[in-house]
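Predict the structure of Carbohydrate kinase PfkB domain-containing protein.
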Amino acid sequence: MINIIFQDDGGSYNGQVVQRLGGVARNHADALARLGCDSVFISAIGDDQNGQFFRQHSDKIDISRVKIIGHKPTCTYLAVNVKGNVRFGIVTAEPLLSTITPALIESNEDAIQSADYILLDSNLSVPVMAKALEIAKKHEKQVWLEPTDIDKVKKVFDTGMVGAVTAASPNANEFLRWAKMCNVVVDPFVIDSADSVLELIEKEKSKILLNTSIFVVTLSNKGSAVVYRNKLGQLEFQSLPPPVQMDKIVSVSGAGDSFNSGVIAGLAHNKTVVEALQIGQECARLTLQTTLATSEAITPHLLA
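Done. Here is the predicted structure for Carbohydrate kinase PfkB domain-containing protein.
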């Protein structure tokens, strides 16, 4: 990670290089475990130095179901971070992701069956996502979808099982793509404020929300737009401020994952949605102020 102002001039710049654990699903697993939840991670790693680094630093997560693959590199992401914002990233993932198959998901059906929540990220292939959603629907499980990238939003719709998703957390650009996939015409400027997003969702709720009971649109320094169903099944619309002042942000990487995890953990511990959102905000605040993808300050006391 490089924290310095730089130009595209081929020069070398002083900065800081940090190796840390990351990945959307892993970030959620870590944050949930730090909050005191039993967190089971179903994935794959390579039999290499990065895979060993993962195993050495995952003591809080149940990684017994992580498959170790020889002759494939562990998924690796290089982020260039300037003043807390990721300018661009380089990822090596496809060789290993191809080893995560529907059969692997099916072999872990018992873990899915016993879970309160399933966190599904869209880095997976469409067939793998479809199998996970099929099993979750079979056992009537709550599925939280993290789209991960604007170009990957389409995947969950391609499964033909988007109706099995009960919560989703797109960022601003992912939301625009989500709305398009739902056949909603959207003015791109709608993401300029949380209130505008909420107005659009209220207008097109039957198309955009599908079967979700919680829908969160994160809007960076504009906060978040949240729609959820209360105990009576009625829709509630709420805007949230940014978790922390922009000048106090160290890195945005992983903050959304920490937010989601706080909400999921709160709901799993029978908190109200409002209380769970507050827990999510605090988790995001802590992660925004560290170079780690999940703040070590996230602990079970946040659920007290």
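The mean pLDDT is 94.
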